[in-house]
Amino acid sequence: MRILFLANTDWYLYNFRQDLAHALRVAGHEVVMAAPRGEFAKRLEADGYEFRAVEISRQGLNPVSEFAAVRRLEALYREVQPDMVHHFTLKAVVLGSLAARRAGIEHVINAIAGLGYAFSGDGLKARTIRRGLLPVLRRALAGSNVVFQNPDDQATLRASGVLEDVPNHLIKGSGVDISAFAMTPEPEGDPVVMLPGRMLWSKGVGTFAGAAERVRFHLPLARFVLVGSLDEEHPDAVTREDMERITGSGHVEWWGFQEAMNATLQQAHVVCLPSRYGEGVPRVLIEAAAIGRPLVGTDIPGCREIVIDHKTGLLVRPRDATALSEALLELLRDRDLRRRMAANARALAVRRFSTTTVIEETFEVYRKTAPGFLTSVSASPEAVS
């Protein structure tokens, strides 16, 4: 089969969906990648994928520009003529589904990896966006198979009526190669608390910086490290000036983008993601769990699927630097507690979030969507590595 992946960034396809694409190729299928062209398109092409550049805005709801994007996607689908399309990220789900219907694509998979601010926020702006988005989602998802990464998002859209007569499935996360991310002991030396991810305020960068100052008042040798690239085109971006101010305080380091996340995560004693809004299931937390690091995350959809409170880590309220600092102090002061949570985290990652498990579950959705879909039993990266 010819299967097209669509996302609103090439970064997403490269970092989160290459394992699935590889498994499809091993099973004898052809995969076409489509997204706005960025720095990762060449990497996908170097790995042998056909890449199609298509313009999709990452933010905004301008009806004129969005309809133009649907028309561009419709043209792409008619040209590529995929047997199946798999949409990732909410914007691509909406626009891609409308385009697929216009192009007559029969088999459509829509992956909801977090509903974000519109469904997590309680303010007037969030409620207004939510009211406008629900009927659009209802129309877009009709006739497709929908895959959720966490049960909270699935329950939200079920309760809203969006999923009426729409087949929907729960597959937690995008999968991590647990053989590549093997269990390792925590490092010697001063304790390191790490926040890996894109440098966005919604990822909790400000909360992390506030907690760093509080923790270092009690444990001055503790190091707080941000790992990830700036994303200054994003409306929620931490700018370079912001980062200079944060690191200028002397409490936080910024390591920037790191290619080898396995080796980077091994330098941490605790991995932290104090996101403000709902996530799918954050891959960085799964990777950290896989190598055996205790986790601290916010009590929001997605994070609590991998951060099991007082088992694999600690959950705190969003936007609460004091609560975050208290949780981090509890872990940094108790090495035995960190070891117990690390072992639990590794066990959960192996049991529930391995690449093999996620790919097998995704292939089952493909089979339900397109009965002609055939797979190889050795299709996962772990099985063929």
From TrEMBL:
GO terms for molecular function: glycosyltransferase activity. InterPro entries: Glyco_trans_1 (IPR001296), Glyco_trans_4-like_N (IPR028098). Residues 2-144 form the Glycosyltransferase subfamily 4-like N-terminal domain. Residues 184-346 form the Glycosyl transferase family domain. This is Glycosyltransferase family 1 protein.
